TrEMBL record, chains A, B:
Residues 24-392 form the Luciferase-like domain. This is FMN-dependent oxidoreductase, nitrilotriacetate monooxygenase family. SUPFAM superfamilies: Bacterial luciferase-like (SSF51679). Keywords: Flavoprotein, FMN, Monooxygenase, Oxidoreductase. It comes from the Bacteria. InterPro entries: Diverse_substr_monoxygenases, Luciferase-like_dom, Luciferase-like_sf, NTA_MOA. GO terms for molecular function: monooxygenase activity; oxidoreductase activity, acting on paired donors, with incorporation or reduction of molecular oxygen. Belongs to the NtaA/SnaA/DszA monooxygenase family. It holds the Pfam family Bac_luciferase. It comes from Arboricoccus pini. FMN binds at D57, T103, H153, Y157, S227, S228.
Length: 457, 457
């Protein structure tokens, strides 16, 4: 039996994940509106046999008028870029095997639209679509949808659970063989193979059926990123891939055991959920070269951008404080994202960091796992986490694009392949084939909402 | 000065516009989920220098359980097919000049999502996107969005006007040159070139800005199809292309004068709105061949499908009546679509048609303008309407696909070109270039909502 192999996603911010990526000499600064740029990196990822490319999303531009000095120096995904579903649909036409995973929020969408667009993408890509289900916490999104406020966590998750069930129910509207298209008899579809959803719940009332035939994968692959308790439960009930942000091996192993351990409660198998932590690799042929590459990026961070990163990542507003002094003792409370704020504060206190050192520390991976080193260094760490049951694979976050992805492909992948840890060719044409995930049967899944009712009993 | 030339759109239903199209031996019955099919017809349309391809839309599958006998024999757009924005985004990657126009309803969408997706499509197609703004009347859509009922006409249009203004406002979020991306100074965009919308209206509260840079066309081309009084006013205020359904020359001329005459009231020029009636052409090398082609399609209509067509087109439920008898004297009133119902009844009475004859009569073009004849016959009629100020161009509705489009391209276009009525090459890379429409300046358009307030004074 061949050795178990890791799964790899390419997590694509337009110019790359480092906060100053766009200023890098080899970065495509116009990435957010250059389809040629995305075509190139999608084809690089496919040529390298990545399982998927993955796009984050937010339906808004971050920041208020007061944030403009920092925002105007920042070219992350928060400013302006392609909308993910249109972008991936376009990339579907110029690729043939790489998976196409887009984020879409359950907070400001309708399940019918989401079910339809991802099913359509699955058809037009020949079975390569994945949906990263998220809930929205950002006020910058809320204000674009008639809501000034912040939706409480529990309510967002309740809506998300029902949303996931409606979407999966709509994907089961038609049997795989419903469309007989028999020109002779004139029967286009078999009426008994149509399943009308008739969903009536607390948040949604959706009759169905979906006006898209069942898609090549049955369901597009369900992806999630939540790491709160309700997030982990929702993932255990519904997700097939989880993107996580554990930095240490011990945390990764603990998260892995925790979430995988919940699967049985939802009637699911251990290996039908792939846990793929983010990793931010800075690769050099030598450690010195890797460090130099990283410092080159760090040097490009404007202090305004560094401070805004602390704000965006952990809700910490440290403007006006001495950049080369410690964090103030008293910090005002924030709405939402409390756990991320505490992570930052703990990090600063533990390592005795100045404000500048703190923002430099998180600037690369923004709190994700960061490895600066040689191909062997990086392969060692990935292998340790993969074989130590801390991960089923990784979500690679290139520091800048396209160069950072090309580095990983040209330097790290050969090392992983030499160790027998990563494929040399795709297992099949669909994302499920490559991830090793089963194709869902019609109705063959536990409704998240019902599972949660049981859990609450 | 060269002769004025007509604009041409290819209005694509998956298998074609004839209600029995999918049963035609040369029709692609699997069109609704075959990207290869759409790639072929998009490339045929582009090779022929069509201005655009156009996709209708409805967020639902028509019919209730009682309609299944007819529905299951019908492969029109009402059953299952690609979602338009994902489909056009994919086609953008395999075409370079043809315009890409998708329908999206204002009734069950959020303006931020719509503005964003069309701006994204405009970027990834290099300036070829168009948005066909519609309001939704179908209960089959309403039931997928938590609403069992029918939204009154006036309220739908009020929402649509505000929706159009929010979308255009969001498209003006960034000046064309806002993104300076100066790696040296670290300035990614110029803060003074960002325009935050801060819209607060009756239906929507949307802060903005849009998280997509201003798109190649400034605004994707605004398309509409309404022919009610509020529909014509909305079109005069906001539309740049109108798809209409006038059957006779006199009606077309009257509509043309009526709508164009309203433009000045909104500060707009006569030729900045292109009126493009639908035309359903059945082309033969001889009249006999054309008639035979048409009869071949008509013979494929199952009576269940014919009756459901009367229901779908004009709200007429004639099940249980003698197909070879006249329409009953008393017909139950319907909600919505009253004018289309009356058009059907008038047609039957005027031409003394049986029920079967009535459904056969509308089966081809479904109430649109139908021409069965030789290339010269069809060119004569198009020329008459074009030169007689009944149209600026036409929205070609192929009876079946891909054959019906290929017939038009191979037989009718050479005749139109011989007469100097249609281009031999594209004027430019964007849809606006080809339609001869100006590129909107930031804020250089009259808000529809305000225009209507003036009209009401």
């Amino acid at each position: 039996m061949p050795k178990k192999q890791m799964k790899l996603g390419a997590f694509l911010y337009p110019t790359g994940h480092h906060v100053a990526a766009w200023r890098h000499p080899q970065a495509a600064a116009n990435a957010g509106s250059s389809i040629a740029h995305y075509r190139e990196i999608a084809q690089v990822a496919e040529h390298a046999k990545f399982d998927m490319i993955f796009l984050a999303d937010g339906a808004g531009t971050r920041g208020t008028e007061a944030d403009l000095p920092a925002l105007s120096r920042t070219a992350t995904r928060y400013v302006a870029q392609f909308e993910p579903l249109t972008l991936l649909s376009s990339l579907a036409a110029v690729t043939s095997h790489v998976g196409l995973v887009a984020t879409a929020t359950t907070t400001y969408n309708e399940p019918y639209h989401v079910a339809r667009k991802f099913a359509s993408l699955d058809h037009l890509s020949g079975g390569r679509a994945g949906w990263n289900l998220v809930t929205s916490t950002s006020p910058y999104e809320a204000e674009n949808f008639g809501s000034g406020g912040y939706t409480p966590h529990a309510q967002r998750y309740e809506r998300a659970r029902e949303f996931a069930d409606v979407v999966r129910g709509l994907w089961d509207s038609w049997d795989d063989d419903a469309f007989v298209r028999d020109k002779e008899s004139g029967v286009f579809f078999s009426p008994e193979k149509l399943h009308v959803l008739h969903h009536k719940g607390r948040h949604f009332s959706v009759r169905g059926p979906l006006n898209v035939a069942r898609s090549p994968q049955g369901h597009p692959v369900m992806v999630q990123a939540g790491s709160s308790e309700p997030g982990k439960d929702l993932a255990a009930a519904t997700a097939e891939v989880i993107f996580t942000a554990q930095v240490t091996l011990a945390d990764a192993q603990s998260f892995y055991r925790d979430v995988k351990g919940r699967l049985a409660g939802y009637g699911r198998q251990w290996d039908h959920l792939k846990i793929m932590p983010g990793v931010f690799p800075v690769v050099g042929r030598t450690r010195q070269e890797a460090n130099d590459k990283f410092e080159q990026l760090q040097d490009l961070i404007h202090p305004e951008v560094g401070l805004s990163l602390l704000q965006a990542t952990g809700g910490l507003d440290l403007r006006g404080h001495d950049l080369d002094g410690p964090l103030p003792d008293e910090l005002p409370p924030t709405e939402g994202g409390k756990s991320r704020q505490q992570l930052l504060i703990d990090l600063a206190r533990r390592e005795n960091l100045t404000i500048r050192q703190l923002y430099l520390k998180i600037a690369g991976a923004r709190g994700h796992w960061q490895i600066v080193g040689t191909p062997a260094d990086i392969a060692d760490q990935l292998q340790e986490r993969f074989e130590g049951e801390g991960a089923d694979g990784f979500n690679v976050m290139p520091p800048y694009l396209p160069g950072g992805l090309v580095d990983f492909v040209e330097l790290v992948l050969p090392e992983l392949r030499r160790r027998g840890l990563f494929r040399t060719d795709y297992e099949g044409p669909t994302l499920r084939d490559n991830l090793g995930l089963p194709r869902p049967a019609i109705g063959g899944w536990a409704p998240a909402a019902r599972a949660f009712e049981h859990a609450a009993e």
